[in-house]
Specification:
Layout lengths: L5 E7 L6 H9 L6 E8 L5 H11 L4 E6 L4 H11 L4 E4 L5 E2 L3 H12 L3 E10 L5 E5 L6 E4 L6 H4 L7 E4 H4 L11 H12 L3 E14 L10 H20 L3 H24 L7 H15 L11 H4 L4 H14 L3 H13 L8
Parallel strand pairs: 1-2, 1-4, 2-3, 6-10
Antiparallel strand pairs: 4-9, 5-10, 6-7, 6-9, 8-10
Helix pairs in contact: 7-8, 8-9, 9-10, 12-13
Length: about 350
Amino acid sequence: MSEVKVSIVVPIYNLEKYIPRCLDALVNQTLEEIEILCVDDGSKDSAPQIIEDYKAKYPNKVKTFHKENGGEWSARTYGLKQAIGEYVGFIDSDDVPEVTWAEKLYEAAKKNGADIAFSGYDRVDLDTGKTVSVEMTQYGTMNKEVDFNDDFIVYANPSLWNKIYRREIVKDLEFLPFRGCNDTLFLIHSYMSGVKKLTFIPDVLYHYYLRSSSQIHSLNTKDIENLKKYFLVTKENAQKLGIYDEFKEVLDVMVFLHLGISWIYMVSYDKEANMKEILKDAVKYMDENFPTWRKSKFFKMSHCFPKGFKFIAIWGVHLFYRLKLPIVYVWVNRFLTDVVKLEVKW
């Protein structure tokens, strides 16, 4: 096999029903110089045999690894450590990339000297096959420098599977041991580790399938505490790298968006959650550890209103927090989601 251009890490845990369609799309990629790293994370169904069958049929492309169950994060880290490609990407085994996924992302990255290449993707209802939404196409064809004074990097989609990373920059990173937000923190750490240039292509190259066991209704207080813990790890890493002073305002914005907005809303579906205490603790945590969230220039009316509805909504949530009424935000968002059936994408 010639030099590997793109390593593709596929964490495997059960899902025997969906793995063949994912691997069929990967072994038929139009970019020949790829390796497909299937990491079985202690599956209990026929998934281990399925990936061995693909390895036997495509020995020059498919590599298989079997480990004890440690969670999706550990399987991704394991695969990253085995990768040898110039770039590395991550695919979920129940989703389907286009056969041009690797080629188009790699060509965009090479053409523009980018450390990360992003593509568009769509979200598809698994039961009906209906396309629910199309994401990350709004930037068109564009290049962007990473700038800690620009909140663009806060809002650039963090999902792992619609991008490839320059492996040399991220090879020593590890996914953090908790569910949810791992992709966001991996992207943040890639910026901190030296990613300088991003490139975007509008092509929809990935089909993300929505299953009924969505995390949105399963978060609990333990998940909130884990998120808070690993944001502190991120802060400590920035301090160790000597970039915290320039990075802190962007980091504080990320903490507010993910903890104060997204996760606070999701944990509200946990019937055992004491939202009054959770909100009180979240505000105290942000004030003590990420204090610029209150007066950040990225939450000012002059910054948010020209950018459209999403940013106006974020400004509104930030206002509720400053007025000591964050529970009102939770009620409004629950009403929009559960009654009006309007999903607000933060």
